[in-house]
């Protein structure tokens, strides 16, 4: 598709939760149509019918400030090239084109369509993902959101304990662990644990399968050495309700995350590319699924590993003007993909001599830990991309540099 092939129309959609404004421009920038549609099945059908009056779907690229969603899916299924655009880019474009500063939903749709018309050759169309990738992305992202919610809930519980019963926070290593939650369920206040003995604590740990390898005497010493908790019966009643409420939330989140872990393992195993992403050293199942879910399976979109590296934000941004030149961190990226790939890179250096060598050389050159991990992640992206393009799992024996590192380590 190009502006020289047939009649092109450019569609801009200003997305909203209930109603979307649509603007259609011709090749010369003339407004051909402007209307609104509801965020309903009937609204999507109306959009397809209205656009179909002007040209074939493949000749009507659509720009929208969203990379996914049911509206995007409907446009892709209809055959429209969909160009996700950054809200900040549209904001800057609007400020330069609409000098009065006026703003409205129909006006934004016109701005988006004109942005698409002018920058059509510079924009990359979204590629439809397979059903298996969409399913995996849904569970992986939901798990990430629940993990973040658990971190917030644990911090809230820790704040309550710090204020009223520090000993309960100190006794076990992790507040979100099953043993810590069970202890708080049994003893939600300082008063309820005031007469706890070493024998009782040992029996409690045995009954709940405690695996921390700390004797009851040590655990009880941690509890007693912490600042004394609130013993006032009126205050303790409120603390009890607050602690048990937070314990209930964290327990529910633990269960949900565990269920999603099982779903992720199943969906990664059933995905055609699942074996490829799980084959890398220390990738595991959840981390491999996180990378695969954000990386996707549209091979025609990423024709070079540098495209993936830029999407993941592990390549720097260079700014040069005159005699000045600076290299800075890349902020605009898929942050979920960046976290997934850098997490894998950090883990991989403990299982791959080749990865450890790249990391150590980066550190020796003066780079801090996060920078060195991004350097390693970029190296891994090239390897992952090649395996992904070839459809073959990672094999260190076929990876020349990795094989050489292993041989050198064995010789040493």
Brief summary of the model shown:
The chain has 412 residues and is an alpha/beta fold.
Record keyword descriptors for this entry.
single chain, 412 residues, alpha/beta, five-stranded mixed beta sheet, two-stranded antiparallel ribbon, 17 helices, 7 strands, globular, DNA binding, transposase activity, Transposase_20, Transpos_IS110, Transp_IS110-like_N
Overview of this protein structure:
With 412 residues, this protein is α/β, with parallel strands linked by helices. Helices cover 57% and strands 9% of the residues. It has 17 helices and seven strands. The chain has helices spanning 41-52, 70-78, 87-97, 105-118, 131-164, 166-170, 178-186, 198-207, 216-225, 233-270, 274-278, 286-295, 305-311, 335-348, 353-364, 369-390, 400-411, and strands at 10-14, 19-25, 31-38, 62-64, 82-84, 317-321, 324-328. The strands form two sheets. The protein has a five-stranded mixed β-sheet. The protein has a two-stranded antiparallel sheet with strand order 6-7. α3 (87-97) packs across α4 (105-118) and α13 packs across α16 (369-390). The mean pLDDT is 91.
Give the topology.
Elements: E1 10-14, E2 19-25, E3 31-38, H1 41-52, E4 62-64, H2 70-78, E5 82-84, H3 87-97, H4 105-118, H5 131-164, H6 166-170, H7 178-186, H8 198-207, H9 216-225, H10 233-270, H11 274-278, H12 286-295, H13 305-311, E6 317-321, E7 324-328, H14 335-348, H15 353-364, H16 369-390, H17 400-411
Parallel strand pairs: 1-4, 4-5
Antiparallel strand pairs: 1-2, 2-3, 6-7
Helix pairs in contact: 3-4, 5-10, 5-12, 7-10, 8-9, 12-14, 13-16, 14-16, 15-16, 15-17
